[in-house]
Design brief:
12 helices, mainly alpha, single chain, 2 strands
């Protein structure tokens, strides 16, 4: 029984990694006043280009770097449309999701003869000497791959950034009252572009993690709506790094549960088990309805000449 629980928790953490990275990136974006629905497209781009680069180069490092670059490119397009051109942020995000899916499906079709269906060597686990030998906890926390360790460090750094630094306060000021922040000498546009770039990088890592660690290959629409679940996680986690991680673990547990139930042959329709994570997404949004802590200027374009 103990072995089953430990393996379930390990699966829960692995399943939560792409969601956590995407949601942490979206947290930074939203706290700057930008809502980016297009993180599904950034995740998908990171997954595809991360896999394609690793397949042709044999390097997982280059694969993750390519995934990061792909995520940043998608987010920079969103940034130009929503910050520079002041277009509707939600519409821009949805359009980028559709564009990314269509474009990557086209590229995948072209490359399918030499890549995509072929498996690659995935990122292995690293055991931390001493700590990994701790009963139960050591196996769960200290026998993971490098990206999981990076996730833990990133959560701590973001908590410190938001709560203890001037830059974190500046980012929140830009999201709450950009006019006042601009008057105080804080560059609203610079912070929002930085937030978009950071979000793109996080989505790129999350997407690359899917193909370079979890799956080992690319399949059409491999993200399966994880970007939209990450958006729900941001709301559910109250835009706090720790809260977001807790919410991502919850959805990771739901994902792990549906795979376990299918493998155990539980007499439930496969469609119900597959749709369970998305059902819980709706449930989570119902719980948080009316309890929003949205930044005051979220999704509102900033025009310097308008006071």
């Amino acid at each position: 029984m103990t072995e089953y629980i430990i393996s379930f928790i390990e699966a829960m953490i692995r399943m939560s990694v792409p969601l956590t990275f995407a949601a942490l990136g979206e947290v930074v974006c939203e706290r700057s006043g930008i809502i980016n629905i297009g993180i599904e497209g950034s995740l998908l781009s990171g997954a595809f280009f991360g896999y394609l680069t690793t397949y042709h180069s044999g390097s997982l490092i280059l694969g993750f770097l390519a995934g990061i670059a792909a995520g940043i490119v998608i987010n920079l397009i969103h940034a130009v449309l929503s910050i520079y051109l002041c277009q509707d942020q939600t519409v821009c995000g949805v359009a980028l999701n559709i564009l990314s899916l269509g474009f990557i499906t086209f590229l995948f079709t072209l490359s399918e003869s030499s890549a995509g269906t072929e498996s690659i060597n995935t990122l292995g686990k690293i055991s931390i000497p001493g700590l990994s030998s701790i009963p139960i906890i050591g196996r769960i926390l200290f026998q993971n791959d490098l990206i999981v360790y990076l996730m833990f460090v990133l959560i701590i750094l973001l908590m410190f950034f938001f709560n203890k630094t001037f830059w974190g306060l500046s980012l929140d000021a830009v999201g709450e009252n950009p006019q006042a922040a601009d008057t105080a000498g804080i560059s609203v546009f610079s912070w929002r572009y930085i937030a978009e770039i950071f979000c793109g990088a996080m989505c790129g890592i999350g997407g690359a993690y899917l193909t370079l660690v979890q799956v080992g290959r690319y399949t059409n629409n491999v993200t399966s709506g994880r970007g939209y679940i990450a958006l729900a996680i941001v709301v559910f986690g109250r835009r706090s790094p720790v809260g977001v991680f807790g919410a991502a673990l919850f959805f990771g547990a739901v994902n792990a549960l549906q795979f376990r139930l299918q493998s155990m042959g539980v007499p439930l329709p496969t469609q119900f088990l597959t749709g369970l994570p998305y059902l819980m997404t709706v449930f989570a949004l119902l719980i948080t309805a009316g309890k929003g802590t949205d930044p005051e200027s979220l999704s509102k374009p900033y025009l310097r000449n308008m006071r």
